[in-house]
Specification:
TIM Barrel, 245 residues, single chain, alpha/beta, 10 helices
Amino acid sequence: MAKAFSGAMGVVPALDIDSHEQFELVVKSTTKVDGVVGYKLGLTTVLRFGLDESVRRLRDLTDLPILYDHQKAGPDMPDMAKKFTAMCAQAGVDGLILFPVAGPTAVDGFVGEAVKAGIAPVVGGEIPVPDYCASGGGYMLDDALDRILQRSTAAKADHFVLPAHDMAKVKRWSNWIGANVVNATVFLTGFGSLGGTIEGAFAAASKCKRRYAIVGRLITQSTDPGGAARKLFEQMQAVTAKSSA
């Protein structure tokens, strides 16, 4: 049974860490911190140990939910969805970050298989890179994520991941999600050097009541990972209190 993320807001440390010693230190330092609600497991650990072993090692340190980020799963042939999801379910992850940019059938396949397996599909489609979209010189349509969000909700997705660096986009996407998805959960990512701020992103995403920040280097490269996570959570609380005043 997949674990659900608790609370209306919180911090999800991104464990994109090369050293297993640092991996353990970060988790041990943060897992009991108020406001830390789960972890994002990425390829740096999974390529070294394998998915099953990486989840086992993380489970030895924490009972909190685990998101697996395949950097990024979903832009693939739709018939790979069932195989990929089955392996992730066997490993015991609780959510999958999916970027099904390969088209509508990829959305249906990857989101649909995750739902069937009882794993939360955390759907996105844009990263905080200036030349990702066509308007910035990239290859993706500027409204690609708008289309993916609409298609994924029809496939019963209610967890989403948005880049936090562009407040206008975060507000547009979050307003749409809040108006069209019951009890939606939004993960915001790309803080610090990638341009996002807790204050700006959480205010822009105010139409979604369940908001979490996926945070990497601000926590993992801190000399005090637990203190860094605690400070980020306090910033979220301050934004929420201000918007409620």
